[in-house]
Amino acid sequence: MTKPRTRRGGGRPTIADVARKAGVGAITVSRALREPERVSEELRRQIQAAVDELGYVPDPNARALASARAEVFGVLVPSLTNNVFAEVVRGIYDSLSASPFRIQLGNTHYSGLEEERLLQLFGSQRPAALIVAGIDQTPASRKLLESAGCPVVQVMETGPDPVDMMVGFSHLDGGRAATEHLIEAGYRRVGFIGARMDPRSQRRLAGYRAAMEAAGLFDPRLVTTTPVLSSVSLGREMFRDALAKVPTLDGVFCNNDDIALGVLFECHRASIAVPKTIGIVGFNDLDMMQVAFPSVTSIRTHRYEIGRRAVAMALAAIAGKRPEQRIVDLGFELKRRESTAR
Amino acid sequence: MTKPRTRRGGGRPTIADVARKAGVGAITVSRALREPERVSEELRRQIQAAVDELGYVPDPNARALASARAEVFGVLVPSLTNNVFAEVVRGIYDSLSASPFRIQLGNTHYSGLEEERLLQLFGSQRPAALIVAGIDQTPASRKLLESAGCPVVQVMETGPDPVDMMVGFSHLDGGRAATEHLIEAGYRRVGFIGARMDPRSQRRLAGYRAAMEAAGLFDPRLVTTTPVLSSVSLGREMFRDALAKVPTLDGVFCNNDDIALGVLFECHRASIAVPKTIGIVGFNDLDMMQVAFPSVTSIRTHRYEIGRRAVAMALAAIAGKRPEQRIVDLGFELKRRESTAR
DNA sequence: CGCCAATTTGGTAGCGCTACCATCTCCTAC
DNA sequence: GTAGGAGATGGTAGCGCTACCAAATTGGCG
């Protein structure tokens, strides 16, 4: 007669408690919760009453263990504070809040190694889907993604050869469009200023270069980059460097809006007329760009929508209805504003 | 002779595989991984070799189920895109990245109901600790926190009566300090502009009011608020409203830096001299405030550090070394800049 | 009226791990 | 020489849930 060992779980009600109270088998409770249409209405009602009365909440860990599938979306982004990724993440959260899926969010700090580590960790949870930023995974990461056994969505960019699905846009085209706009507006000595030169920034730079070369205006001295994390203050400093290097500079395509804002502020401070003396184009089109004085031309990207679409595609794949379009290009819009209106 | 049912788990190695390969019991492998000092060095080495060879990664779900404790920190914030919370979250992530703990992040959208729902959900996972933003939980949420059976840290604010532990600062004092600074600088018709009037904003407003009343300057018409989510463009609009209402306005304390930036831009646009005609003070001191032209006075808050401290306190409590100081006030700093230097 | 299929319900056997207790060795103390 | 304790290792029995299969019930049809 071994004494019934105290319940380790701390006394929260289990599915067995609900089953007992409702006078049914445990498996029926499980079904009533997951596939209500397969249980008669009467039992469903009884079970719901028992659930409410006991305050039963299923244990996701037990569920994941028994079904070999956790109701978790793994999400990997390079930064939590960069507004761009924060918006994508918000789109993901909003799309998933009404679903049973939880989110496991990882911050790679722009490190391939960290990405591998997190992918390994996430994989051990058997997630229902994985959403990762970027398309330049290391070979090891790519292998992990391919063998994850769940839908995978690469976001922020489009490119050939997706692991599974993709939602984003072409950063190269964005960079080109921004630069062409400056050239069309009459700017000639157009610089590129970019911090945190991640793969997406590299492609924007490539777009800039393509446009400049096509116009016969490219000059390597016009390009100013740094691997340092982007910020408004960095934008200001880099602009000063760029101007010192090329005093005839008359326009800048900034890798992102933070940099552009730093440039704008420095122009104010140094009494450089915008858009007359210098034209400025940013990237991403944060809310503040249209409010700035002068308002700043920027490439509007659809970050929130990228998050939503990624979830929608993953959900469809989970439901077995894999979208026929595996690569979704959400594009971008050039927002022409005062900073380039000369 | 029932055929051995195919492994549901999809063939990833389990602790039993490692044990077999290392020639030890499963429980010894478990111990070697969790409490290496309790296993002889020789076995430890053998086990590590087997783990590496098989690429074994423990299943966190099984672990959580067996130990009735998930290695998860539940984190609840009202917004993912607000830079202030993003910084706190980043501090939490950075502090936890080297630990075995995962993070479950929830977005309450400033809704008490949503907070309750998420708390309920998180509770079902038996988290190792909970970190929640704010101190104004609904009674139901507070009950959930109190019965969570794990350390709880309320962040962003300090106040009496913590559920368990607290890290933050006094928003009332911050609001008062900002307003007193404007008054000392000689501004008299000082307005308050605040969007998204959450409890913290309310307390900043209370600080503003206290300072204005102490100086005999308070006038309800100086206060402009809205429940709408804060943004730079909203800041611009609200400032125009405020100015229309009180044309003699000569200073503004903005509920946050986004609003302050909107005010600054509108001043540029309307050729209102800053700091001569209007003084501006923000709140939080985002990087861009010191770069802006003119640079903007703001209340610097230690968001990242709040995240780090919250984790440190929770970790200490988990380890049984509950910090003797349950309420940590990290304070704030008034950064005097050009926008109030007249 | 019996047979088969469809529908609803339940029992059993794990999922992969760890809590708990038992065992075994080795060492110290008297 | 033996008791007692500390340290290392292992076995057993679940944790709470669901996959799989079996059984019971219902209904349609020849």
UniProtKB/TrEMBL annotation, chains A, B:
Keyword field: DNA-binding, Transcription, Transcription regulation
Coiled coil, from the record: none
GO molecular function, one term: DNA-binding transcription factor activity
InterPro entries, sorted: HTH_LacI, LacI/GalR-like_sensor, Lambda_DNA-bd_dom_sf, Peripla_BP_I
Pfam families reported for this sequence: LacI, Peripla_BP_3
Residue ranges of every copy of the HTH lacI-type domain listed in the record: 13-67
Protein name from the UniProt record: Regulatory protein LacI
Organism: Mesorhizobium ciceri biovar biserrulae (strain HAMBI 2942 / LMG 23838 / WSM1271)
